[in-house]
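Here is an idea for our session: we take a single protein and study its fold together. Which protein we use is up to you, so please pick one and set it down. Once you have written the record down, we can walk along the chain together:
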Amino acid sequence: MVTDVIPFDKREGSLWLDGKFIPWSDAKIHVLTHGLHYASSVFEGERMYSGRIYKLEEHTARLFKSAQILDMKIPFSAKEINDASIRACEIQGFKDAYVRPVVWRGSEQMSVAGDKNHIHVAIAAWQWGSYFNPAEKMKGIRLGLSDWKRPAPDTAPTAAKAAGLYMICTISKHAAEAKGYHDAMMLDYRGYVAEATGANIFFVQDGKLFTPIADCFLNGITRQSVIALAKARQIQVIEKHIKPEELTGFTECFLTGTAAEVTPVSEIGPYKFKPGKITETLLNDYNADVNREVSAIKLNAA
């Protein structure tokens, strides 16, 4: 994975915090913040391409939904969040960037109950290239198999993009990288294929696209976009519960996500795949889609 050597608390510029832009280095919270101790925090991951944030409204709508699930009322309107997200890039001078809105409970109350805590919102933007090494990406990345499983929807708020749900993702990714893999594939609580640690997963068999039913993990916005792109190409999309042993019948595999975009996969543990025509087509279609509105605006302006 490509990383930046500059620590995030040492970066220059400004970010949006609770309704105003402040110097990046001044964005601090107390160690007794409820969001830190009890994981009362939700967030989004977005990308700006050529000056426009892809599916911004959909991301903001999900942020509000996630906050509602965790019983947090965001003290700003969706429009204010959208405007601040765009401005967070502009104030940094970015045309292409990763954007991170985050919502959390503050430090007024320290107990499991958190209803007395103020709800804070921050939005930061930074330049971030491919989530995986571009030179290796087109060859297909290698995934290990996680020992951890995605929880059942009646045991965790799986419909929310909640910070606490990523704890087992971090553990799984660390374990996979220690074994030489790029990432890990996780099963769900029933033993079906679920997703990677931060991206949804797709498979190809006989010209058809298969993907797990998103009933205990996020139905990613990029996932939805790729499904729509596939259907526009008349590629049949089948959402089903997939057993691990079924992976032997698939010829292609790829991940989707805001950070991962469309990333081919060549290996999942003992299962091998070869990035092929459908993967390449959808990768190219997605790249075109994220820039489509920008191109249309430039064409109209001309």
Summary: Residues 277-301 form the longest helix (25 residues). The longest strand covers residues 141-150.
